[in-house]
Amino acid sequence: MKDLHDITHGELLSVLEELGQPKFRAKQVEEWLWERGASSFDDMTNLPKTLRAALAERFTLGGVSQAARQQSADGSRKYLLRLADGASVECVGMPTGQRLAVCASTQAGCGMGCAFCATGASGLTRSLTAAEIYEQVMHVRDDFGTRVTSVVLMGQGEPFANYDATLAALRRLNSPDGLGIGARHLTVSTCGIIPQILRFAKEPEQFTLAVSLHSAVQKTRNLLMPGVKKWSLLNLYDAMGTYVDITGRRPTYEYALIRGVNDTDEELDHLVEFCRGNLAHVNLIQLNEVPGSKFQPSSEARAGEFVRRLGQVGVEATVRQSRGADIDAACGQLRQRVERRSS
Ligand code: SF4
């Protein structure tokens, strides 16, 4: 059976017409789906019982259920959510004052194989539907009981390997009939799939783009991010130039500082050259210590040096404090732990 979230507005109207229902029912059904987050047809109390039963005969409500939750001392909460077919994904809620940021996944697992990532080590299970991406955000909203103010698609998966569902989820998150989050507060983070960066540049909404760079030295980047080896840094540089020309928006480069790998003087020189003269913001991420990982975080002093040197060429850089350092906040860690426990 099809998930009711996965049909278009037009298809819903036809189903309702077939069932002899007035048009305004579509609005009511969509409110339950996208604003109230109904987990059963019985929740839809303003629909006639006969309609609820007829919908339940034809559709499922998909939905995500919580398999595990961890809470960090800094207030972040990390969730392992089970999808209808048993696949699982992780997402994180990060409160700061009145704001609540959510990091959500676009795929169960990931095929990009980044060397420093627990998810990458386990491979791709499948891509998510737009509704499954959206529902992670709803789950976090409901758990915190507060409005979500920003979303970053930076959890498991490569969003641009699941472009259409990612875009549909962003549009729903942005829509006043969805969560009504401003487009600039909706960020897609990609490893750098160039054809999709160019496609994204032409989308009418002002969504934000982040690119995982992690090194501006080809050899190091190939080692860290084998999934994007076929696109050179030069290709990426040109594509980002085109992106900025088309959108006029400033992209973010994500750079996880790894001691002795991409935090050397030579690496810093290349990063400065990559960014010099371009519209860019660099997010320097202090890695979490992952048990058994061969990669260690850089020192704070090294991160400070990166900020200083980038600043000298007019590129703003910030060091992002890793949230939830006391929980399994690196992507893939919680899933690995729960699956180890249950196997
Ligand atoms: S870092 Fe992101 S893109 Fe890379 S393997 Fe992990 S989930 Fe995939």
Range of strand content: 15-25%
Largest sheet, strands/sense/barrel: 10 strands, mixed
End-to-end CA span:
30 Å
The count of DSSP E runs of length 2 or more, i.e. the number of strands, is 14
Order of helices and strands: EHHHEEEEEEHEHEHEHEHHEHEHEH
Lateral arrangement of strands in the main beta sheet: 3-4-5-6-9-10-11-12-13-14
Bound molecules: iron/sulfur cluster
User: What integer value in Å does the Rg equal?
Assistant: 21 Å
Would you identify the CATH H-level superfamily of the largest domain?
A: Aldolase class I
Question: Topology, please?
Answer:
Elements: E1 2-3, H1 9-18, H2 24-36, H3 49-58, E2 59-60, E3 65-71, E4 77-82, E5 88-96, E6 99-103, E7 107-109, H4 118-122, E8 124-127, H5 130-144, E9 150-153, H6 163-174, E10 186-190, H7 194-201, E11 208-212, H8 218-224, H9 233-247, E12 252-257, H10 265-275, E13 281-286, H11 300-312, E14 316-320, H12 333-342
Parallel strand pairs: 1-2, 6-9, 9-10, 10-11, 11-12, 12-13, 13-14
Antiparallel strand pairs: 3-4, 4-5, 5-6, 7-8
Helix pairs in contact: 5-6, 7-9
Iron/sulfur cluster binds at residues 110, 112-114, 117, 119-120, 156-158, 191, 331.
Structural descriptors:
about 20% strand, ten-stranded mixed sheet, about 350 residues, DNA polymerase, domain 1, TIM Barrel, alpha/beta, 12 helices, two-stranded parallel sheet, about 40% helix, binds iron/sulfur cluster
